[in-house]
């Protein structure tokens, strides 16, 4: 059906220009390809549509009839699309979204802002929740959508990755590594590190542990933080070094340096996550919106 729709639009341009070459230019395609498309359309319909002449083309009676029918069909299609869009814009209801502090550092805020602009009648409620709390809330139907660490999003939940962040090492400006352009993960062995507590930062710690284990060691924990401001404070006081995704670079104070890891084996990935068992119309609308506007290579 999609192929037929494309060929009918091409045929309409050929009919309106009266010339295959000019039509091909207008359609931004090669003339031989357009000529083949018109022949295939005639074969598919089992009727001659064009009279080919040295200086252009003329319509057969069947071609003239198809032009009129195609114009009417495209007008009806456009009207249907416009009505569908208007109906979507008029949708009302509430969408409850959970998100982690790490998700809010990436593209998630822009997705929320753009969705609210497109669907102003939908009340978007935002709840700051750790990844593990989001999973529980999704299973209980307490939130519609979550934004959490990708490693947390497992069946029966469904996920769509929205970011893939390379890890960076965070150090106090006075630290001996502060002016490095990059650093090998092996250098962190036995280096005091600041981590989040296991209860709230469990998935973040899993990623940090896995990155360190790729070099054959586990991090040396010097301090644990409950929240991001607490984490940053430990770094500012020189109690250790920290590790996060590169998006943190827009959030850290001038007293902290961010150093990319050379050849990282893992990334800090974030995903949109939902429970298929609790999906509703507005939730699906948001899911479709994110999938159309956030595509990773």
Fold and architecture overview:
The chain is of the alpha/beta class and 297 residues long. The protein has three domains: 2-89, Arc Repressor Mutant, subunit A (Orthogonal Bundle), CATH 1.10.10.10; 93-163 and 269-293, D-Maltodextrin-Binding Protein, domain 2; 167-266, 3-Layer(aba) Sandwich (D-Maltodextrin-Binding Protein, domain 2), CATH 3.40.190. Helices cover 42% and strands 23% of the residues. The strands form four sheets. Strands 4-3-5-12-6 form a five-stranded mixed β-sheet, sandwiched between helices. Helix 5 links the parallel strand 3 and strand 4 (122-128). The mean pLDDT is 90.
Write a concise keyword list for the protein shown above.
9 helices; D-Maltodextrin-Binding Protein, domain 2; alpha/beta; Arc Repressor Mutant, subunit A; three-stranded antiparallel β-sheet; 297 residues; five-stranded mixed β-sheet; 12 strands; 3 domains
Can you give me a brief rundown of this structure?
The chain is an alpha/beta fold and 297 residues long. It has helices at residues 2-17, 20-27, 31-45, 61-89, 108-118, 131-139, 198-213, 228-236, 281-293, and strands at 50-53, 56-59, 93-99, 122-128, 145-149, 158-165, 167-172, 192-196, 220-225, 242-245, 256-260, 268-274.
Low-confidence stretches: none
Cα(first) to Cα(last) distance is 28 Å
Largest pleated sheet:
5 strands, mixed
Which value, in Å, is the CA radius of gyration? 28 Å
Helix content: 40-55%
For the record, the CATH class of the largest domain is Alpha Beta
């Amino acid at each position: 059906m999609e192929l037929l729709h494309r060929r009918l639009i091409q045929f309409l341009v050929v009919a309106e220009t009266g010339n295959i070459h000019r039509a091909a230019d207008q359609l931004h395609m090669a003339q031989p390809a357009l000529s083949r498309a018109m022949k295939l359309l005639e074969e598919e319909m089992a009727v001659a549509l064009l009279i080919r002449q040295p200086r252009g083309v003329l319509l057969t009676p069947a071609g003239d009839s198809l032009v009129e029918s195609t114009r009417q069909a495209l007008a009806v299609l456009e009207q249907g699309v416009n009505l569908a869009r208007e109906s979507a814009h008029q949708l009302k209801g509430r969408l409850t979204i959970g998100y982690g502090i790490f998700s809010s550092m990436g593209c998630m805020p822009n997705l929320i802002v753009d969705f609210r602009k497109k669907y102003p009648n939908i009340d978007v409620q935002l709840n700051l929740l750790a990844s593990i709390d989001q999973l529980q809330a999704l299973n209980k139907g307490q939130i519609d959508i979550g934004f959490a660490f990708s490693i947390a999003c497992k069946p029966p939940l469904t996920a769509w990755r929205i970011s893939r962040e390379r890890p960076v090492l965070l150090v106090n400006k006075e630290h001996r590594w502060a002016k490095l352009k990059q650093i090998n993960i092996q250098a962190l062995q036995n280096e005091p590190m600041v981590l989040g507590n296991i209860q709230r930062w469990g998935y973040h710690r899993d990623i940090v542990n896995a990155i360190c284990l790729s070099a054959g060691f586990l991090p040396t924990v010097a301090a644990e933080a409950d929240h991001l401001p607490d984490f940053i404070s430990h770094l500012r006081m020189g109690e250790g070094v920290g590790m996060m995704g590169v998006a943190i670079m827009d959030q850290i104070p001038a007293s902290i340096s961010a150093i990319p890891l050379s050849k990282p084996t893992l990334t800090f990935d974030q995903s949109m996550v939902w429970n298929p068992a609790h999906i509703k119309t507005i939730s699906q609308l948001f899911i479709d919106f994110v999938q159309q506007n956030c595509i990773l290579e």
